[in-house]
Amino acid sequence: MRSAFPRTALLSASRASRFLPAHRPVRFYSIKAEAASHSKQRPMDASRLTVEKTKTPKPLSKPEDLVFGKQFTDHMLAIEWTKEDGWLEPRITPYQNLSLDPATCVFHYAFECFEGMKAYRDKNGDIRLFRPDKNMARLNKSAARIALPTFEPTALIELIAKLTKLDARFIPAHRGYSLYLRPTLIGTQSTLGVGAPGSALLFVIASPVGPYYPTGFKAVSLEATNYAVRAWPGGVGDKKLGANYAPCIVPQQEAASRGFQQNLWLFGEEEYVTEVGTMNMFAVLKDKATGQKELVTAPLDGTILEGVTRDSVLQLARERLAPEGWKISERKFTMRELAEASKEGRLLEAFGAGTAAIVSPIRKISWKGELVDCGLKETEESGEIAAKVKEWMEAIQYGDVEHEWSVKV
Amino acid sequence: MRSAFPRTALLSASRASRFLPAHRPVRFYSIKAEAASHSKQRPMDASRLTVEKTKTPKPLSKPEDLVFGKQFTDHMLAIEWTKEDGWLEPRITPYQNLSLDPATCVFHYAFECFEGMKAYRDKNGDIRLFRPDKNMARLNKSAARIALPTFEPTALIELIAKLTKLDARFIPAHRGYSLYLRPTLIGTQSTLGVGAPGSALLFVIASPVGPYYPTGFKAVSLEATNYAVRAWPGGVGDKKLGANYAPCIVPQQEAASRGFQQNLWLFGEEEYVTEVGTMNMFAVLKDKATGQKELVTAPLDGTILEGVTRDSVLQLARERLAPEGWKISERKFTMRELAEASKEGRLLEAFGAGTAAIVSPIRKISWKGELVDCGLKETEESGEIAAKVKEWMEAIQYGDVEHEWSVKV
């Protein structure tokens, strides 16, 4: 699949340095990779990891100065894949730029998918990941959908754990803080024909982050978007592809221009409620006839991102709310249903759910000229369930309670 | 919008060299850009172009060895944009890698759009672009849809003309050959928050290409895809975004695994015919009652790429076929309609249309277990209209006839 055409000096560097600046080659790695070039496709193998530590450690930012996804740790993890050889040696190197041919397919055809996950420091100082198996499974599903290579989940978890431990000093020992981890898989073939990439790069970068709501919850207001559609049946809206994100910005800006913090994605003539900005959406409804409380979220019908937080909220609610008489529903629900429930005082609360904020309480939703009230009192920034869910989730994430979802590294 | 966090040495280079390797800074450019950092947003300005010629010109490939999008010319055009300053000085430099922070938004959220256009050498040796204004207009529409900056079309055409002339030696003086130009616009902000990029890079690379069918037309067979959906009303399928391409590969591979060269995208329960692989789709039908011939293609309803070749075919057909009694239609048509017409001998031919091949004749379409015959005799590789359209288009593209669509550079 490689070009026979003589490339520039910058590009003629060894395979190992194809994506890292030419003045920083890792020679022994290059030689090993060349020697293996006729072997069969190799699986991802954490035992082959090489680590090059930085010689210029970064100063730590003050915790209060952290901004989501702006500051990064000293190191990154990088694993190249080629069609001929499979996964090459994993490498932890100093955080550095990628050097890529301008014809690389990630720039043209969006061969890219990613995950968002977090590492937490517990009260003993240990580092914990939250349900990393879910992120690995989703990344593999995303990769397969766009013809990128899949990998062994346990191998990548082990490698991410090593990166996390190496850069553990960046995780502040304060509640609400964590290390946001961003595994990213990109196609790296540098030809313009539209086809499955013959090479790829999986990298992981890490960004220390503070609490999403440093001074406590702050409820947001949404604008329901019906002029643009995020996802559709048979499409790729349930995968964590880069392709699903860039088209969301303009509707988000439109909502912001009218004073709403996020947009709410509706689907179809029925105006089904699907997602909030880049979060899953939950509502708490009271049944008109029986008064039974229901926690409802849209089903995984291919148009909804399969959120790890969404799944966790559902599981915890089934364990802890269902025994108290709650109904926990994954079902389609419409904006009209929310509006009616609101008018009748039966929309008790609503919130978005995602890795960044865990839950994001919603005050009101602008829809067809009306403002749908989501049940919060003027003095409240969160409903009871949103607050409970956040507490439950953090207790597990920070290891206050032992739970199989929290994995010490 | 920029991180206040100290970056690595590689990243602390001047703005001008942010995306080009650190050992190749263009000093005077950097200084100018800094000096302008408090001015208002500037428009793209071709008169500010700087040119750095390569010191190591590439040898030319033999024309017969050219593979689409694999070989590139000596130079590239690059124009950076920042929210603060607007479009910075355009630069033509040696073709070289881009050096990008791994947090750059193009890798995560698919902030990327592109164009495909060609430069042709005419019989006098002059170089001609084909309808470059259409490509510029579409690139601006694509950019605006994903919150990337727009630009002055005439400025970019002028800059592309300069790149084309500088690398004109790569365009073989043979019919069927051309220089494929790939303007690409990517978001370059290196933070993980999902929002409008505060910086971007527009670059143009050029690849000499040979005739799509070196030994004459070769008709393809298609598999109609109904398990995956390329585009949706209110989605972005009518824009030339990277996001629309990666999800197409698996359905294409599925079709190939069953012996079909391309897939045909259907839409909805009605199974409307939309696009062929990455081309627009045309069919020639004979009316059941009147016998009138109809050239039909799907309308621009937001689910169809607004192809420049599609538009050109329609215009030429309206000028040259309509006076002969043809009906030229942009309307919805279904797979069932094609299948019925085929059975009744009224599907005279079908073809895809796009920049790469101009037209790609279709022999048959696999749909729900049947093979829909598209009207070619076994010994034929093209219908009459596909062959005519190719001839008409090439006569204009290669300047055999003077036409406003063909622009000398």
Automatic annotation (TrEMBL), chains A, B:
Residue stretches of biased makeup (Basic and acidic residues): 42-60
Entry-linked Gene3D superfamilies: 3.30.470.10, D-amino Acid Aminotransferase, subunit A, domain 2 (3.20.10.10)
Signal peptide from the UniProt entry: none
Chain intervals for the UniProt region annotation (Disordered): 39-60
UniProt keywords, alphabetically: Amino-acid biosynthesis, Aminotransferase, Branched-chain amino acid biosynthesis, Pyridoxal phosphate, Transferase
PANTHER family, per the entry: BRANCHED-CHAIN-AMINO-ACID AMINOTRANSFERASE, SUBGROUP IIII AMINOTRANSFERASE
Catalysed reactions, as listed in the record: L-valine + 2-oxoglutarate = 3-methyl-2-oxobutanoate + L-glutamate; L-leucine + 2-oxoglutarate = 4-methyl-2-oxopentanoate + L-glutamate; L-isoleucine + 2-oxoglutarate = (S)-3-methyl-2-oxopentanoate + L-glutamate
One term of GO molecular function: transaminase activity
EC number(s) recorded for this UniProt protein: 2.6.1.42
The species this protein was found in: Trichoderma ghanense
Name recorded for this polypeptide: Branched-chain-amino-acid aminotransferase
Cofactor: pyridoxal 5'-phosphate
Family of this protein: Belongs to the class-IV pyridoxal-phosphate-dependent aminotransferase family.
CDD domains, A to Z: BCAT_beta_family
NCBIfam families with a match to the protein in the record: ilvE_II (TIGR01123), PRK13357.1 (NF009897)
